[in-house]
What we know:
- Its EC number is 2.6.1.2.
- This is alanine transaminase.
- The chain has about 500 residues and is of the alpha/beta class.
- The protein has two domains: about 5-70 and about 375-490, Aspartate Aminotransferase, domain 1; about 120-355, Aspartate Aminotransferase, domain 2, CATH 3.40.640.10.
- The protein has helices at about 5-15, 25-35, 35-45, 45-50, 75-85, 95-110, 125-140, 155-165, 185-195, 215-225, 245-260, 285-290, 295, 330-340, 345-355, 365-390, 415-425, 430-440, 470-490, and strands at about 60, 150-155, 175-180, 195-200, 230-235, 265, 300-305, 320-325, 400, 410, 410-415, 445, 445-450, 460-465.
- It has a seven-stranded mixed beta sheet, sandwiched between helices. Strands 10-14-13 form a three-stranded antiparallel beta sheet.
- The longest helix has 26 residues, at about 365-390.
- The model is unreliable at about 1-35 (pLDDT under 50).
Amino acid sequence: MSFAALLLVDIWLTGGDGSGDNSLPVKTKLRLDCSWFITLQLISRIPELGIKKPFTEVIRANIGDAQAMGQQPITFLRQVMALCTYPNLLDSPSFPEDAKKRARRLLQACGGNSLGSYSASQGVNCIREDVAAYITRRDGGVPADPDNIYLTTGASDGISTILKILVSGGGKSRTGVMIPIPQYPLYSAVISELDAIQVNYYLDEENCWALNVNELRRAVQEAKDHCDPKVLCIINPGNPTGQVQSRKCIEDVIHFAWEEKLFLMADEVYQDNVYSPDCKFHSFKKVLYEMGPEYSSNVELASFHSTSKGYMGECGYRGGYMEVINLHPEIKGQLVKLLSVRLCPPVSGQAAMDIVVNPPVPGEESFELFHREKESVLGNLAKKAKLTEDLFNQVPGIHCNPLQGAMYAFPRIFIPSKAVEAAQAHKMAPDMFYCMKLLEETGICVVPGSGFGQREGTYHFRMTILPPVEKLKTVLQKVKDFHIKFLEKYA
């Protein structure tokens, strides 16, 4: 089977363009939202199929998997995890004492002093305490209660769980969930799985993908005709768009949620990934409390973090947490019951999350190395963000907003009318057609903007900035050369 045929199989399996049409049946919609993942699985089969292409490797720039793209693990995190996994190493002189101290504390909190035991459904108690202490430090002293902390299997598990307890009703009373467009497809997929109603609000591309509260008001008022909007999802820093919200924007969003009695979900997994010197991460929790008790005592908020992004890039450990505040006690009881069904999140992932929130501090043996590695990762990402923005904006027919944070570019691409017609002939979205051609000719795999949602008549793709600098330069040059040829071919 040819590579092109494999991709066409993917289009057939996923039912089309990944556009997120909420009128589609749930199973079809789930396939659409996961089309990028199915494509990745097909791509991974190229070597075993012996397919000959005009490139030597497939560069999987379609997913934010840091270590798969060559990022080195943080030494201290891996040392503690090694000690926890094989405690016999605690006698080894090869490990620093502060790593051993962390490992002993974590093991003592586990049943049988082993990561192989179940934990409480809400997570290991001392790790939840460490998460609460981390949040308090991060937010300048705003208190966090360990009882409001739930350890999760990555942030995705927490997001799915919260949506499960919030969705109810039928017909016009069915729960509406407001999500940004463009969005991370987890949201549209879970909304479809739960048969909730997706309520789109559009980010302002002309204003660096800013969130405008007037757009939220438009979306919620239109949605009230056919559902009951109850949930507002925010991704900050943004995925796929990379914007970082200002404090004023966050205040406006919180005030809007308070007015409309919406449950706020703040996806903050990229909180360490802020590159623009004009931007700063502000947690929704901190801003909520600083707005005063009228807001902090009434607005329901769930915020999420993960080991997978930031400077850690530990996707495979599937570690994460959520902090849930102002939840009604009876609903909180139901949340604990729902979590108990899956017994507990992976205890190794919980331990990895603990190291993220409880890293070496000045004066400890491992601090200097940890600090140097962390700053190196984040510094390189900042350089690559600027490099990507600058080089894309040198290409005719491509415009890329500043990459303020996260780890992706989401450039807007011009697709000529003849290419749009060719895409229609293949029953594809134009940007899917573009991305498939890019993959066929260069081996670079990116995700079409239609997989995330976009304003009608605009086309984009998402590409990670995680490859090493020299490889990233090669990727960007190949995209530039391809785009120029594509415009010439379909002019």
